[in-house]
Amino acid sequence: MVENKDYSHSFESIRAMSTEILEASEDLVEMDLSAIDGILLPRVYSYLTTRSEGVWLPEGYRWPLQTEFGLNLFFNVVNFCYQDPTTGHEYVYLDNESRKIKRSTGLLAAMARSEVDWASLSSIRDISVPTWRKMTQISDSNSMFLADERRDKVVGFANRLLSLGYGGTLDLLIDSEYSASKMILILNESGYFDDKFMKRSQLACRMTSEVLVRRGHEPLSDLDKLTVMADYRIPQVFYNLAAVNIVDQELADKLENGQPILSNSREEKALRSTAVVVGKMVANKMGVSEAEVDNILWGLSQDMVKKGEMVIPHMIVATDAY
Fold first, then answer.
1. Where are the domains of the chain?
2. Exposed (0-12), middle (13-18) or buried (19+): which is 116, by Cβ within 10 Å?
3. CA 168, 153, 141 angle in degrees (round to 5)?
């Protein structure tokens, strides 16, 4: 059970940490306030006027609440690094119509279209290595970074929730009292969402809230406390739209040439911090929550990719944090 205490400091600590990292990283990256106002914000508003609403629905949207919630929850246990840092191969899932679904969308599709009951922790716990490889279509020609380890994380997290006395995934939602702050505590204390920026645990909460809202329920409480999530795409949006300048030439060369950046390095932390700090600026200027801005910026990143606007590639890091 979750104790009754104040959890808001966790999110504020991410904001404070990110600000401190950027202040100490002026030799690596710098924010351009004029470009945030003059280039980034107009591009955000342009995207919002053209994006389609209600056309795309996610995997599992027709399922019962507890099943889609479970899918999204366990997806975020393993939602990290889809481009192999060594080979450059991107994970691909081939659906029944022979369509290739790449990266995170592909893994979500693979999990959703498996025979696993994502509402049942015992069903998830019983996923074997051969079952995982079959459902994700992992092979020598279709590799995935830390492939078997992802299965271990899924099974391990299911066992963790079972040890807490939960019988199904919905028990976690009920025990957290439909609060993002309380759910974050359970996820982070499990050890399966380890990351100082709390990217995957925060995203699990945001996606859970979207599952609830689609079904006519209230969103998770405390959702407005979340930060913009420190991943690889949102910093890419910023440095491709000049909101963030790459000062260090070695870092610029690594980005432009698709060379891996060391996990937990100054360079990685500086880039991830821009998502939190600049993202908060954008949220304040737009008058919306950081969680909503995170959603908008991720959508913008996909729009920019499709339109060939991502001249500078995203950073490549061998990590299980994001």
1. 8-55+225-306, 65-222
2. buried
3. 120
**pLDDT (tens digit per residue) in 170-210:** 999 999 999 999 999 999 999 999 999 999 999 999 999 99
Alpha helices in 245-313 (DSSP H): 249-257, 266-286, 290-306
Written as six digits, the tokens of 187 are 């996820």
Token pair 């919905």: residue: 170
- 132: CB partners within 8 A, 6+ apart: 138, 147, 148, 150, 151, 154
Q: What does the pLDDT look like over 276-319, one tens digit per residue? A: 999 999 999 999 999 999 999 999 999 999 999 999 999 999 99
- Is there a contact between 99 and 149 (Cβ–Cβ < 8 Å)? no
Q: With contact defined as beta carbons under 8 Å apart, do 208 and 172 qualify?
A: no
Extract the tokens encoding 61.
């949207």
**How far is it, in rounded angstroms, from Cα 278 to Cα 289?**
13
